[in-house]
Amino acid sequence: MKKTIILMVCICSLAGFSQTKKDTINSIGLDEVVVSTQRFAKPKRKITQQIESISKKEIDFNNFQSSADVLGNSGTLAVQKSQQGGGSPIIRGFESSRILLLVDGIRMNNLIYRAGHLQNIVTVDKNMIENVDVLFGPSSTIHGSDALGGAIYLQTKNAKLLSDTDNKKFSGTVLTSYNSVNQGKSGHLDFNFAGQKWGSLTSFSYNDYGDLKMGKHKNGSNDFFGERPFYVVTNDGVDTKVANDDKYVQKFSGYKQYDFMQKIIFQQNNRTRHSLNLQYSTTSDIPRYDRLTDLGSNGKFKSAVWNYGPQKRLLSAYKLDKKKVFLNSDMNLVASYQNIEESRITRNFGNPTQSSRIEKVSIFAINSDFKTKIGNGDFIYGADVYYDDLNSSGIKKNILTNAEGIADSRYPDGKNNTFRAEGFASYSNDINKTASYNASVRAGYTALNSEISTNFLNLPYTNVSQKNFTYSGAVGIVNNASENTKIAFNLASAFRVPNIDDLAKIFESAAGTLIVPNKDLKPEKSVTADLSITFWEGKRFQFENVFYYTRLYDAIVTAPFMLNGQSSISYAGANSPIYANQNQGKGSIVGISSTLRSYITKSFLFYGTFNFTNGRAQNSKGEFPLDHIAPFYGKTGFKYESKRVNLDLYMLYNGKKELSNYSPSGEDNLQYAPKNGMPSWETYNLKGSLSLLEQFTLYSGIENILDTQYRTFASGINAGGRNIYLGGKYNF
């Protein structure tokens, strides 16, 4: 990447006549912003942690193809991809099970969230999202286990009453778009009925994405990489290596997704509101693109089939909001149930035996939040109870004879469950007119049980169980020394309790590398200190810098392991080295995040972000790089905003990942990077919107204008090349 980071680009979006006057005012009004990541809304000026928000307006304007792309194009965090139908966010060097995903305040993380690369965020339809809040840094005292690096709060649209819609009984939105880079077709419809006390919102989305075409032009002086010159075709059970008509088309990367949501609210009285939230998402088979490109030493493809089966997510939740319940406390009470189904369908090239490994997860939860006043301060307290259950199975089938049998499952095929019960409390108050503080604590109990019924590997044990007491705390202070300055300091601990994926999985993480259970794994913990300094100039200028340092204890790292006195084992027809998740000493992560927004005029906004993270771990054998540490990255550009037209010209950029900085665990996917490491890259993009009528907005733009060939850090698929898109939004 060029040392002098050139200029950037810019943006524009217009909200059309259908938006309120407030929406069309160009300003950086952070005093008015409130966020929902703290379980109750709170002014952003009084929050000590770094928070970035992405609005519905931005999501519509930018024509994102998935919720993962919403985050990956923000310039504030990185996203890894193993296939087009995926996206694994990275926050401050933490990924997957080390960050917490929440939809409408409900945890998505479950007992099989893995530490590698996780694609579950795409199951939340980007068209349903009203707002995204990203909370950077440890968040265990508010949200519990897993939030070592931060939390991503996805707030979907809510049903509205007449009082919310200016007495408009029926309203809704129609969205549609087309993308040239993958012949992507998307459609969305939502419909709201508003009554005096009752409200109902129904939403449906359909997305059909074809094979993704990569960029054709060399990235600076770097070699071409990632082309798809051949692929596998199977006819009558015979696998054949076939030449690709266009090596830039990444064959077998397309997929389809369907999303449905139904919300109902009932305003019983001024003090009581009931809400029902139903969500369902499913997909076609999603090819695991990186595995389909793996070649053996003989030059033949290793896999003829490697698909994620339909990824199904069902959420049902009831919420009770009641004011002044007891001790003068406002209450939020949520009872929820989630049902998740995932599967992996694999078959080696030339082998007629196809294996399907199926995971079915049920999650039961009760969450209670209470807010009251103690003196002049806010006191928030509550309890969370979760019970997760997993059924894991394996089936093998001969595609020639259709004969079926039992295959080894990814997780133990007996009973698998986890239980968690935790309580928390948080207090915040003003020190004086300019300064305030907060302090919070959480404590709880967790239990895990996993039983192995079919012992394919002759493990020396058939049961894995754990019981842990958990705790964390946080203190923070913020000083708004003037209307133009905010200084905040935060010190927080966090924890992540090992789940079934950590403790009990049997998995080929990379070709020829087998991960086996380790029943002695302990929770990993962290302590983080961060300092943020923010400058404002009225509502026209903001410059924020956040410095952070994290210390990891008992960090869970995948490393060589001995099983029955052996360091390798025969698995899937090959002699595979044995690995297992282990607590590997201590680690440290240090970094900086900067954000700049400045209105040059009332209509022109200049903005930029920069992020740098460095992470190392240390054990008895020495020091080594931590996994999931993205190279420096960011976004910079210009926006033009007016009442009818919005334009955005911007640059996304990423630094180089040197070979010496790749983690030895294999999680960084060095095998899918060029021989000299992952090259730096930048893309230039132009987007715009035009409000033709009061209720209709037209969107269009060009992404990756120079058609650059590149791949994001740790990914196994090249990013899209030049993409011309067209879309429209109609509000009624």
From TrEMBL:
SUPFAM superfamilies to which the protein is assigned, alphabetical: Porins
Keyword list, A-Z: Cell outer membrane, Membrane, Receptor, Signal, TonB box, Transmembrane, Transmembrane beta strand, Transport
Signal peptide as annotated in the record: none
UniProt xrefs under Pfam families: Plug, TonB_dep_Rec_b-barrel
TonB-dependent receptor-like beta-barrel domain sequence ranges: 269-705
Subcellular location field: Cell outer membrane
Membrane topology: Multi-pass membrane protein
Residue ranges constituting the TonB-dependent receptor plug domain according to the UniProt record: 43-151
Family that this chain belongs to: Belongs to the TonB-dependent receptor family.
Protein name (Swiss-Prot/TrEMBL): TonB-dependent receptor
Naturally occurring in which organism (per UniProt): Flavobacterium ranwuense
